[in-house]
Specification:
4-alpha-hydroxytetrahydrobiopterin dehydratase activity, Gyrase A, domain 2, globular, lyase, alpha+beta, PCD_sf, single chain, 3 helices
């Protein structure tokens, strides 16, 4: 079994399945879940929290009107790992099952992610 703390190479990340709607931003994976309002976004959090607790790997979540911004990184080791990929896949499953569209954020090399309602 591979080391869950080992860094994911750019090639491994590029070929990883189930990451549609996610983008690497620095040492993180990010997505934006497009929701119809604040309450709809907040309603997704219990299921995302449950998955995070199951995996013992917790994303940064920012609930905004019309969107939920999710960022995952392995803070403890300072880079992306297979734990981030698995968490992203599980969050994508939640989004797909609930009919919640996902989009990878646009990234300006100097300013960072350009979030739709940011």
């Amino acid at each position: 079994m591979s080391d869950p703390n080992a860094p994911i190479s750019p090639d491994e990340l590029a070929h990883a399945e189930g990451l549609e709607g996610w983008r690497q931003v620095g040492d993180s994976l990010m997505t934006v879940l497009e929701t119809s309002g604040f309450s709809r976004g907040a309603a997704l959090l219990p299921e995302i929290a449950q998955v995070a607790d199951e995996l013992n790997h917790h994303p940064d979540v920012d609930v905004r009107y019309g969107e939920v911004v999710i960022r995952t990184t392995s803070h403890d080791v300072g880079h992306l790992t297979s734990r981030d990929v698995e968490l992203a896949r599980r969050i994508s499953t939640i989004a797909n099952r609930t009919g919640t569209p996902m989009q990878a954020p646009n990234v300006d090399p100097e300013r960072g992610p350009d979030l739709p309602n940011g």
